[in-house]
Each structure stands twice: as structure tokens, then as C-alpha cells.
Amino acid sequence: MELETLCSAAKAAKYEVAAIDTDKKNAALIRIADLLVAESESIIIANARDIAAATTKGMSIPLIDRLRLSEDRIKAMSEGLKQVAELPDPLQDVLEEWERPNGLRLKKVRVPLGVIGIIYESRPNVTADAFALTFKSGNAVILKGGSDAIYSNTAITSVIKKGLKEEGITEDAISLIDSTDRETTVRFMQMRDYVDVLIPRGSAGLIRSVVENSKIPVIETGAGNCHIYIDASADLSKAKSIAINAKTQRLGVCNAAESLLIHESIAGTIFPEIARALHDKSVELRGDETALASSEFVVPASEEDYGKEYLDLLMSVKTVKSVDEAIAHINKYSTHHSEAIITEDKESAEKFLKGVDSACVYVNASTRFTDGFEFGFGAEIGISTQMLHARGPMGLKELTSYKYQIYGNGQVRG
Amino acid sequence: MELETLCSAAKAAKYEVAAIDTDKKNAALIRIADLLVAESESIIIANARDIAAATTKGMSIPLIDRLRLSEDRIKAMSEGLKQVAELPDPLQDVLEEWERPNGLRLKKVRVPLGVIGIIYESRPNVTADAFALTFKSGNAVILKGGSDAIYSNTAITSVIKKGLKEEGITEDAISLIDSTDRETTVRFMQMRDYVDVLIPRGSAGLIRSVVENSKIPVIETGAGNCHIYIDASADLSKAKSIAINAKTQRLGVCNAAESLLIHESIAGTIFPEIARALHDKSVELRGDETALASSEFVVPASEEDYGKEYLDLLMSVKTVKSVDEAIAHINKYSTHHSEAIITEDKESAEKFLKGVDSACVYVNASTRFTDGFEFGFGAEIGISTQMLHARGPMGLKELTSYKYQIYGNGQVRG
């Protein structure tokens, strides 16, 4: 479909989607969940075309694996939709309510954002996932997936549209842009008249390109150069297990730690043990002079290392003289995603929590907890690293805006 | 000062500004308020240079009047600062607090946005006003005023900096861009590495240009094509006084009404009286055929009239068959700012409140109430017409973001 026609149809559908009641939305999510499993064969056949094209193109094995859909993965997608059906509808909330001296009664109520555009890369499960969250929060969604997954995404979208139709809901609640060329993507980012918000999901390069080119308001997600700061009073066993967990539990995710800060007073005490433990997990440590002098498992760092999101078995190490220096270093190099202090000192903890300018700041816990499910939101569309609108994990509430409903009895302004 | 140096200094100051306690912020606001009055002579001399340049340029009398500063206007600016000092500090609020089954304790707390850029036009009082609100909410501000007011803005900024210095606060809490050429403005809008949010204040043209050119996240403010819908069951006296107030109480403001919708059943009953009353206030009504046939005071409207923000003694009139048609018309033509229904029918009222997609939706009250002071926020930096972050009048709270502070005792992710 022509891009502008598609965007215009989504805009035309948004008020209809906004008005669907909770039960009907949940029924549709459950029906679509069942349809995905029932029609998994057609999805897997479509996916095979993507896999074949990717193989011909010489795509790497891990990327092909991310692209692949199996019965189990489709079942997981289906389960995800059912979980979203069980979450409370964010549109039911009255956020505030008050009366003015002139008798006007004001009600601040949640409303959907409208049309949400999502630009993402190769994982086709995002298609179902993003639909479920935007739909439950009353939005119409326009998806622009990667060219690698175009057949899979088309098959999944067509199952979703079928489910919507069966429930008597407009199929324009979901649209998939089927051109995969770059020019279409750039044109999509100019569709400010139709699309209310754009959320990019994927690599740092994708996100940068959206931020650079979009005329639509963007929620920036993703990049995480996360820090673990081990304070003078840190408990060795907490420091060791948190550093290992944050760095190695899953390498390629935005809430994994990339940099270790150590207070100078622990350089010769507990740091060598932590360095050995990380080395035993195959992590290469790149550190400053003090770190180098304190452990045989440290190689020299360059200035650039401190700004890097490795997403790999690599970690930078920087020695600081105080919690203040740790905070200043983090605020300079981090992507404002997630950082942790390991300390037994309450004052240091509070200083760190207050001073570090990141979405999620931890005391004695792994940065890996920055996640909508771990926070108890029951869902996650992404993790915002910007200041506007939403910060940190974004669940259903973060996919909404609000409006004021004002009750008068003839008031005019004097 | 070179633009990048100035932006970088503001960024370097932002954490210092964020950490200033409430009492110190209030003391600085009061000191600056007093200094503005004490140094009003130097401000008025600077303002005279702007007035002289504007006169030479042939600026219109009303615009010159907006530019002019008098002892009284400076006193009003000073009072404005003192009022902001009296408002509660939005950074004191803990927004939410909860515990997860794994023992993690999460606290969602307000934080400043960081560095706020404000691009505005000729009224120099915005300089003091914008400083007060951004400073009280813990932000550093970079101001880019219009070239017409450059001497006035420079004088006001220098008094503010003097006051900050006397209170031992970094002068970089406020910066004024002193180049007034367009190229600097465009370069300023690219300073994403330094500026967290950009708020344009001024004409529709200014706002459009910022939205088009900015790489920094923008809060779009301002344009208001506001509607008054007179329902079948409307009370004549409410309808008449609200229509007159919303249209004529102040013409050049964004919350003034620009379009009148009438239910067809009142075309021949109460509409003629309302049309006459508006005509008596010198309002030219441009209507559709039914409106034309119902009142001698209506001239024909063109399609474009329905999309216009006149800011003048003009109003479009459109006849509709139902509240649903009124809602659809509004959602098509409005700028999503403020709209009102005049009705004695509860069902129509609720339908309208729910269906109209605008920041502020009224029942039986004038759209002129869309204002931070009228809402009880005690202040206003502008009225947002976008969905992201904030919608409607923006006070101190709307100039903040949040972060999560998470307390653990060694938790790692499994």
C-alpha cells in the first residue's frame, strides 16, 4: 500500500481503537494468541523464506537464529499476548481530580497517544509484542520491521488482522509497511500529520538514524553504557556476584554493565579477587594504571573504552578517589540508562542515588533488573534513555498521554 | 560567547542547579525580583535602544507596545518571580514507591529535565518568567529571544546573573544567546549533546520552524483553533455568554475560540440570538448554508475557514446533525488545544468529553480557562498541544522528568 494511504488509514482508525472497551480488547488479544498457534504453519513457511534469503546473503549464525521462528517461539509469542490481556487497562485511570474556587471541576484522565510508529530490526516476535502493548493501551500501530524479516512480519500481521476482523475490530489497528527500502523509512519519519510518536527498537545505529531524521516526536530507547561502582565500604561477595551478573548474565542487552569503577582504597584489597572472578568468566578487563598495577587480569584501557557499549566479554575499569568522582565519571560517560553502587555506607548510597543522572540507579543490585517485567509493569515496549515523557522501562502506562475534562455551569473568564 | 561554549557551560552547570535546595532557590528568586526593581533604570535604558531600532524598522504600534518595558511592567516581572518563589518545589515529590518479591525496593522520584532551551519572540518579560520557572524546577536554561528585544533581554539576564552570583549560585543557570541571526538559531536546534528539551514560545511560524529543524526533543506549544459546540439542549444564556467570552475576551491568545459549531435543531431557535450577540461585539461570522439561512449576520465560509486560527474578530460557523458529527469535525480541524460543548444533556456532555481529542475539553465553560494559573498550577511556561510528555498548561511539574532509585541487598538476576 502507498505509505501515505497506510498512515492516513491508521490515523482514521485511532479514535475507533481508543474507544474499544477493555473486555473487547482482551478478547481480541486472546483470539489472536490462539490464531497465531493455529496458523503457526503458515508463519513458519513465511519465515523459511526470510531464513533462505538471509542464508544466501551470508547473514551470521546468531543473527539467523534471532530471525528464526519455531513452534516454540510462536507459542511464546502467543503466551505474551495472553499475558498482556491479563494486565490492567491503563485507560481506566483518573490521574487527578480537583475543583477550582470558581466551581470548575477538573479531571485529568489517561488517553492513548494515538498512532504509534515502531521501527525495528530483525526479530519478528517484536511484531506481535508491539501490537499487543500498543493495542491494549488504546493506540493504533504502524510497524516498520527490517527487510530481513519481511515475510515473517507480513504473515504475523495478517494473522493479527484476521483476529481483529473476527472480533469486529478495525484491521487498521495494525499496519505493516511492506516496502523495506531506506527511502520509505525516511519518508515514514516525516509523517508527522499522521503519526503521533515514533519508537525505534534496535541497534544504536538505527536509533541514531531515527533521532537524526524524524520529524515525529521520538522516544529514544536502548543504548546502555552501564556502570558498576564498587565503593570503599563494599561487601566483597555482593560486589563480586553483582559485577559478574551485570556483565556476563547476558552480554548483548542494554542493561548489561560495560564499565567497572573502583574506589582507590579497594584496588589492593578486594578488587584483585573481583578481577580474577571476571577473568574466570572470560571477561577482558581494560583498566587505568591503578587497576593495571592491582591485577594481572587487566590490560590498558584507552580513553575511548570508557564511552563504549561493548555488548561483549569486555569491561573497562576506572579507579576513582571518591563517590563524587564516580558520579562525575558516570554522568560524563554513561548513556543515562542504569548504574549501580556497591556499598555498605548509607551516605555514599544516598549520594550516588541522588547524583547519578540515569533512568535507574541501584544500590547493591545488578543493573540487569532494568526491565518492565522485573519492575512489575507486566510488559515492556523498550527502555527510554531520554528525559521527555518516559524514562527507564516503558510499560502500558508509558504508551499513554492524558487530557483534562472540565465540568462547568456557565463559567466565563473575567 | 561562541554558541557551543555557551551550551557546554549550561550542561556543566545543570547538576549544580539540580542540587540547589528549595530555600536557596527561593532566596535567589526573591533577591533577583528585588534587583530587577532596583536596577529598572538600566533595563529601561536598554529597552529604549530596542524601541528605537523597532521604530526605525517601522514596527507596528501594537508590537512596539509588546516590546516596551516600563517601571510597572518591571514591577510585574518582579512580582512574578516572587510568586514562583512561593510555589512548592516539584523536586520534593516521591511519585511512587513499591517493593518487588525479590526484595528490591523501587522509588520513582522527580528530577529536573536538565538543560531547557527556550526560543521566543519579542516580549522581553518572557526572559525573567522562563528563568523563574526553569530555575525553580531545578533546570539550567538557555534563552534565545528575538532580535527585536536583544538589548532588553541582555539587560534582564545580566541582572539575573548578578542576583545568582550574590547568592553563591552558578551564573550558568541562565544563558542568553546573543547572536540573533537565523543561522545561530538553526545551529542551536542541533545542540542535542547539550540541551535536553526545547520549548518554542511564539507564533505558529516560529513553532513550525522549531518542529521542522530541531534535533533536540521539542515540546510543541501554542496554536489553538478552539471550538465551541452548541448542542441541541444548550441553555441560551450560557451559550451566549460562553461564545462571547471565548471569542472576544482576548483575541490574540491561543485559548480563544475560532469556530462555532451548532446543532441543526438550534439553527432557527437560539442561534440567531447568539449570532446577533457576536455581531454586536463586532465579530464577523463565516458560516455554512444553514447558518447563512438562519441569521443575517453570517457571511459564507470557505472550507479553509474551518482550519484557521484567526486571532481576530472572525469566527467560522458550522452546522452539525449530532454531537458525533461535532466531535468528528473538531478532531479533523482542531489543533487539539481546547474545545467546549454547551449542553444541558449529560449524555452529550460525556460523549463530547470522551470523544474530543484535545488537551482540554469543557462542558459549559469558556475555553479561555486553559491556562496554568486558571488551573491552579500557580505558573505556566506554555500550553502543550502534543501528546508526548505534557499536554495542556505546563507548570513546574511539567518541567521535570523522573528517575528510579532502587535499593537492594545483593540481588542478581537469575
Biggest protein-protein interface? A-B, 66 and 66 residues
CATH architect. name of the largest domain in chain A: 3-Layer(aba) Sandwich
Order of helices and strands of chain A: HHHHHEEEHEHEHEHEHEHEHEEHEHEEEE
Quaternary organisation of the protein chains: homodimer
Number of separate domains of chain A = 2
Q: Number of helix segments of chain A?
A: 14
CATH topology of the largest domain in chain A: Aldehyde Dehydrogenase, Chain A, domain 1
Report the structural category of chain A. alpha/beta
CATH class of the largest domain in chain A: Alpha Beta
| Percent range of helical residues of chain A | 40-55%
CATH superfamily of the largest domain in chain A: Aldehyde Dehydrogenase, Chain A, domain 1
Largest sheet of chain A, order of strands side by side? 10-9-11-8-7-12-13
Averaged pLDDT of chain A: 95
Number of strands of chain A: 16
